[in-house]
Each structure stands twice: as structure tokens, then as C-alpha cells.
Amino acid sequence: MSAMDVPARGVPAAATPAAAKPKPIHYISWIALALMTTSSVASLRAAPTMAVYGLACIFLYIVPAIVFLLPTSLVSAELASGWSGGVYNWVSQGLSKPMGFLAVWCQFAMTIFYYPSLLGFVASTLAYVINPELASNGLWTAIVIMVCYWTGVWVSSRGTGSVAGLASGGLIIGTLIPGVVLVTLGVVFLGQGNESAAPMDAGHLLPAWAGLSSLVLIVNNFLSYSGMEMNAVHVGSLRNPGKEFPKSMFLAMGLVLLIFILPALAISWVVPADQLSLTAGVMQAFDAMFAQFGSTWLTPIVGIMLVAASLGGMLTWLAGPSKGLLLISRQEGYLPPFLQKLNKHGVQQNILVTQGLITTVIALGYALIPDVSSVYWIFSVITTQVYLIVYLLMFVAAVRLRRSQPDHPRGYKAPMLVGLCGVGFAASLAALLIGFIPPSQFGGGNPWIYFLIVAVGALGLGLLVPFLFYRARKPSWKTADAETADPEAEVAQS
What we know:
- There is one protein chain.
- The chain is mostly helical.
- The chain has a single domain, classed as Amino acid/polyamine transporter I (Up-down Bundle), CATH 1.20.1740.10.
- Helices cover 66% and strands 0% of the residues.
- It has helices spanning 5-8, 30-41, 47-51, 57-82, 86-94, 97-130, 138-157, 166-191, 219-224, 228-231, 241-270, 281-292, 298-332, 337-340, 349-368, 372-404, 417-434, 447-472.
- The protein is globular and about 65 Å long.
């Protein structure tokens, strides 16, 4: 519950016993909120994808930060400070309940492709602990994905609450420490007179233009910045949200950019773009740097740190999105009773198992398609496409709510909301459309096959499946009343 909810739900003093005291509001500083936001957004996993561009990765990170990260942060802060229940309630109030279901469905559906891409990174990283040649082996990648996912389902189905704390530790173990080491070694590498594998002159500040396909890799950065609507729920814990929240977001944006850009540059200094694996690029850079300094024994240690952090993040994500979908479906009857059943630990095991079967089928793509990097990229794009649908709905709902409920109490009002929503909506739509174009780095394949895979994955799973569920719904599918469902359940972002 947000601290903003406390006074709104308070009981008049005359009706309370003398001993009763209002629940204290636990304020946090804007710097603390910035660090919380950084921990939930920043990651090294996307670094190899942008390292392909060398110095131009700075431009490709800053542009989506301005046109997507900033609007998303400020708009979601206004929504979170005025309406509880997360994106489902925002879209339901601003548009309609079916659109709210579509939004919460897409939050869940994107994880179906997110897990294979995340665990594909885990497989390639783990390969450097065992045998680096396995990093490009599709069968190895598929096996690791299936084993890790089903192990995660087993852990989550037992109602283990301790996994929630793994995400905060993951920032330090799997992001900050390896990131600082990677950048430090990269600077020392250049300081010793070694030549950078990527040109570092002003002529390479912008990506080479090869038509629309040269813009496609920027789409992956939208997913890197996603999840800001989750952190917005903390806006009510600031003493002065109007002034402190923007400061917090600008600081978080700066920290996130540093964590994203510097490791990507360090990788581009050491590993040539044509040799870079999108899944194993981080470990390629560590391996090359440790070899340069005669410390290759550190490579497996770093690999274990990255794997541990990624698996911790997966566990914290695993039950969250499906729980939000479950609670809304029990209240409104959007899913059949089979998918709404809980096990003895109160966990939505049937949803997790069904999701696992689909994930297993998707994982086989790694075994069937020779190029692991291509599969990783396709899954990352589909994940982004599905999640962008959530943001398109959120921006439209925010404008509608500002106009239809102008007097509704809000703890924070975003400046120039319509303009912010316009920029965010246009950027999200452009990213969604560009994602259907094969990137220039994968120009050797059939573009129509690429388009078909992305379209079936993104539009089929993101739009067609929820439409079929909605059309097939029955009154008997409602298994919980509005009073017994938890409308404030929301996805936990790692």
C-alpha cells in the first residue's frame, strides 16, 4: 500500500478510541527512491546488444531514455498517486475493463518470451564456467532454459517467500560489482596502449545509417527501461512528491544510463562487433580482459555471480505477473477455472505449469535454429512488442483520466501530461512497428520469416489470445467477488 492511501482511508478522530493513533507514514528520500528505481531497471544483460554499435550506443541509450523512460516515469507517477491497483485499474478507469484485462494480460504474456531470453543469457554465461564452446550450442541453451525454468516453477509453487529478497542482492552481485570490474579493466586495457576494437572518434557518435533496419536495435532499449510504472507506486512515500519525484527520476535516469552505457563501451573496446555474441558478449569481454591480465581463473567466478543474479531475478518475477492476472481473472471471470486454481500453498500453479509448457516449446527454438544470437534477439523483440502494448494503453488512459476525472485527488501531477503522453505513445508505437523489421546485423536471413515469427509471437500472444479468452468467458468463470479479490496486487519488477 502506498503511503498516500493512509490519510484517505483514515477514520475520523471522533469515531476512534482515545488510544488509537493514525498509522505513521514512513517517508523515503528522493535519493533512496532513485536507487530503488536504478536497482529494478539496470542490468548488464543488454550490454552486448548495444556494444555492437560501439560509441554510438550512447546515442541509442539516451534517445529512448528521453522519449520513453522519462514520459513513462512521470505519467505513471501521477496514475499511481491517484489510483491503486496498478495498470489494470488505471486502464480500466481510463478506458474500459476489457482494455484493463488486455493490459494486465500483456504484462503476464511478455514474460513467456522474457524467460527464454533471460535464461538464454544464463546458459551462455554458465557455459564460460564449464566450457566456453557451449555458449553457441543451441541444444545446451535449450536444456538450461528448461531446467532453470521448471526448477523455478517448483520453488515458486512451494510458496517460498524468501526469494523476493534476491532482487536487491542481484543489483550488487550481478550488476554493480561485475559492471565496475568490467569498466575498470576496460580503462586499464586502453591505458596500456591497446587499440580499441571499435572506433572511438567523433565520426562514430551516431549509428551508421543503412535504412530502417539500422534503427531496429534501439527497440531492445525500450525493454531495458520498462517497469517504471511499478516504481511509481512509491511516489506517495516522498515528503514533497511534486518536487522530489522528478529529481529522483532524473537521478535514476543518469545512474541507469551510466550502468548501461559504460559496460557496453567496455565490451566494444575488447570484442570486435563481428565476433560479439548477443547472449555471451559480457563473458566474452571478461574472458578477453582476464586473459590480458593473466587472471582467467576469475572468469568462472564472474560467470557464477551473473548467473546467480539472473536466476534470483527470474524467481522474483515468476509468480508476480501471473498472480496479478489470476486475481483480476477471479474477480472478472477472464480465465477458465482450471487456470484459476491454487495449490495448497496458495500459488497459481496451473498458470505456471501452462506457461512452462509454452516456454519449453519456445526454448526448443534455440536447439532448432543454428544462430543462438538470432534466437535471443527475436525473443527479446517479441518481449518488447508485447510489453509496449501495455504502455500504449497506459498513455491513452492517463489522458482520458486527466480529462474525465480532473478533480480526482492525486499526490503528484505530471507537468504537460498530454505532451508527455503524446511523446511516449508515439515513441512506443514507433518502437513497436520498427520491431517487425529485421536489424541490419541479421540481414542474411529471410525478412518475411523474421516478420512472421515476430508477428505471431507479439500480436498472436499479445492480442489474439486475450481476445479469445474474453470472447469465451462465462459467468461461471468468476470465482471471487470484488470484495474477496485483491485489486491492488501488482507485478513485482526485478
